[in-house]
Structures are given as C-alpha cells and as structure tokens.
C-alpha cells in the first residue's frame, strides 16, 4: 500500500455529539476536517485546484503562484505546492495568527501580510496577476474549489449517514464547501436542507465573512442554500470552548459558529440527522485569545 500524504486528504471522521445535543430525537454529527493532513477542510479544494491546473497545463514548476487567503487555504496550498515542487506566495491579513504564518513558511511558502484585511489581500494578489506575470488559483471564483466537495465531502457524508442526512450546516467563507456539498446532497435527495452560517454585523470570525457585494465569491449560488443564519463572535467563541471541553473536539471559531447554529436547529426539529462541518483544528489559534 503506497499511500502518500496526498492520499490522506479526505475521508475524515464523522462523530456523533455526546454532550451538546440535548434532543434525543435528533442526531448531530460533526465532520472532523481538522483530520486532513494540512489540518483543515481546505486541503480538499487546494489539492483539486492545484492538480487540475497541472493536469490542464495552466501551470508548471516555473509558474509564479500567488493566492490571497485568510489562513486555512494558504496552509493547504503551501503543503500541496511543496509536494508538487511549486513556489507560491500567500497574501494574508496582517491580523493572521502567528501559527498560520509560521506553518505556511514551514511548508516553504513566501508569506506577505497585508494591512487592509482579506479584501486588501485579494486586491494585492489580483494586481500581481495583472501586472507581474503571476498565476492565482483565485479560490473565490475557481470552480475546482466547490467541485472538490462535490467529489469528496458530499459523497462521504451521504455514505457515512447511510443516505439519511436531513440537514447540512456549514460556515461560509469562499463558500466552496457549502456549494459543492449542497450540489451533491441535493442530487441525492432534494429534501436535504442546506444551512449556511455567517457572522453578525461587526463580528469578526476568522475564515467566514458576510462579504460586501463587490467581493462576493463568484462561485456562490444562493439557490443552493436553503437558509442562512447569523452568528455572533461571542457565540462562536463560547461554542468553540464548549466543543473542546464537552465534546473533546479542539477546533477554531468558525466551527464554534457552525455548531451554535446546528444546536439551535437541533432544538427546533422533531427528528432528523444533522451534519455540521468542523473545518479546522484549534491549535492554529493558540496565540489568539480564543482559548484564554
């Protein structure tokens, strides 16, 4: 069995809530994407974007790659680019945690920190593409972002719930996870409810955004999401802490946000099987105030 690190992307565990869910008629499952080798759900999209670009000869080992990222996609791209011997510059908000920056550099990527948040990072990367001969995967408009989840995340959830999943809950950043998973699950059963999670006005939750219209990801199709709920920064923080203490699941703030909404949903339902994405691991937030 010649398994490489790339072969370990996907097929992440689906574990049942043992403490937080109090409705005996509803099963709540957590999809543990932190178990991917790069530590997040973004390994799936990063691999699909890089592999497709290589296979279609859009890039090769001499291509100068650049990507704007809030963190997890950058780590995934850095890891997979290193495996394929590609050089990449990753542009992040300067507020990014030290762990994220150091992890990308450990994988061999160049990291540029931008003062104007993720929007500024995106503008910087686009300028480099337009003027300096760089290639960007542009995760916000790259179809291979959501297709990765159509090919892997959706089928895994369907398989591991024996086709009985009734609700899927995911925080929304690039929206690749929710778009691809929705597309697959709706093909299997149009009654499956797809629930998106975004921050309340003024809340800052790493990895998820309520985008200004001009920055809305081009891959986002609102018809594929049945309901969108807002979650506050404080709710997301407290739930991330509860996930660690009560469920033994060490995850970031966006996972706390998704879990908050999944639990509210569980309280409202007469019965059902909810799957909520735990998109990364908590260890990349240790220098932040999340677990203080």
From TrEMBL:
Pathway assigned to this chain's UniProt record: Amino-acid biosynthesis; L-cysteine biosynthesis; L-cysteine from L-serine: step 2/2
Domain of life: Bacteria
Domain Tryptophan synthase beta chain-like PALP: 7-280
Keywords, ordered alphabetically: Amino-acid biosynthesis, Cysteine biosynthesis, Pyridoxal phosphate, Transferase
EC number: 2.5.1.47
InterPro entries noted in UniProt: Cys_synth, Cys_Synth/Cystath_Beta-Synth, P-phosphate_BS, TrpB-like_PALP, TrpB-like_PALP_sf
Pfam families noted in UniProt: PALP (PF00291)
Record lineage: Bacteria, Pseudomonadati, Bacteroidota, Flavobacteriia, Flavobacteriales
UniProt cross-references to NCBIfam families, sorted A to Z: cysKM, PRK11761.1
UniProt GO MF annotations: cysteine synthase activity
Coiled-coil residue spans: none
Protein name (record): cysteine synthase
Family assignment from sequence similarity: Belongs to the cysteine synthase/cystathionine beta-synthase family.
Enzyme class: transferase
Native species: Winogradskyella pelagia
Cofactor(s) named in the record: pyridoxal 5'-phosphate
Catalytic activity: O-acetyl-L-serine + hydrogen sulfide = L-cysteine + acetate
